[in-house]
Amino acid sequence: MADSSQTNSSSNVTKLLEFFHLCEKLKTTKRTGWIYHNVENPESISDHMYRMSILSLSVNDPTLDRDKCVKMSIVHDLAEATVGDITPYDGISKEEKKRRESEALRHICDDLLGNSPQSQEIYALWQEYEDATTKEAKFVNDIDKFEMILQAYEYEQSQNKNLEEFFESTKGIFTHPEVKSWVEELYKNRKPYKQKITQENTG
Ligand SMILES: Nc1nc2c(ncn2[C@H]2C[C@H](O)[C@@H](COP(=O)(O)O)O2)c(=O)[nH]1
Ligand SMILES: [Mn+2]
């Protein structure tokens, strides 16, 4: 039997399980931006965060705390388990989106995780990402958008979708030199969308 100081009380364990179950929403909630474009079988919020953690492990930048970037990647959209995946086109201001997400994260960290040291780290990582002032946060903000256009490219290729909007809205926003090289390579490989010529088009 583990030493009691290292175990949680039974009510805390009950709340931990509630948190773990809440995280299922990240696995089941499809990303809204793809839904709006009728993408078939769109990725979930956690799919997006998982690949961001892989990008964090892959970057060749010794000045970056990559472990921190991995942690930041997997918590940056955690609040979406409660508030959902809000896009810039939903008519919800950045301030309101941040208020909802901050409230959701406070509930998770205070009510479900009992303001434990672990929950304080989760909240601090989320806040650092939102403030976007540290090197790690700027990098993770970059790969949040790079991972999105990477996925847009893949849907364009596999489903012959026109997802130009995602490329337009992220033009010129990348700051990290290596991420910029990834973006350049992606643009080099991107094939123009081919309008499917159907019977009615040809008359
Ligand atoms: N239709 C569009 N949707 C977009 C665009 N930029 C972001 N988004 C979507 C992608 C996600 O579903 C959601 C927010 O993603 P976060 O990872 O930032 O939470 O917004 C766009 O240009 N067009
Ligand atoms: Mn994101």
Automatic annotation (TrEMBL):
Names of the cofactor(s): Co(2+); Mg(2+); Mn(2+)
Record key words, sorted: Hydrolase, Magnesium, Metal-binding
Residue ranges occupied by any HD/PDEase domain in the UniProt entry: 41-158
Domain of life: Eukaryota
EC identifiers of the protein: 3.1.3.89
UniProt xrefs under SMART domains: HDc (SM00471)
Coiled-coil stretches noted in the UniProt entry, renumbered to this chain: none
One protein family per Pfam: HD_3
One Gene Ontology term of the molecular function aspect: metal ion binding
GO cellular component terms, semicolon-separated: cytoplasm
UniProt keyword Transit peptide, yes or no: no
InterPro entries: HD/PDEase_dom, HD_domain, YfbR/HDDC2
Reaction(s) catalysed (UniProt annotation): a 2'-deoxyribonucleoside 5'-phosphate + H2O = a 2'-deoxyribonucleoside + phosphate
Enzyme class: hydrolase
Entry's Gene Ontology BP terms: deoxyribonucleoside monophosphate catabolic process
Quaternary structure, from the entry: Homodimer.
Chain's role: Catalyzes the dephosphorylation of the nucleoside 5'-monophosphates deoxyadenosine monophosphate (dAMP), deoxycytidine monophosphate (dCMP), deoxyguanosine monophosphate (dGMP) and deoxythymidine monophosphate (dTMP).
Similarity-based family: Belongs to the HDDC2 family.
The protein, known as: 5'-deoxynucleotidase
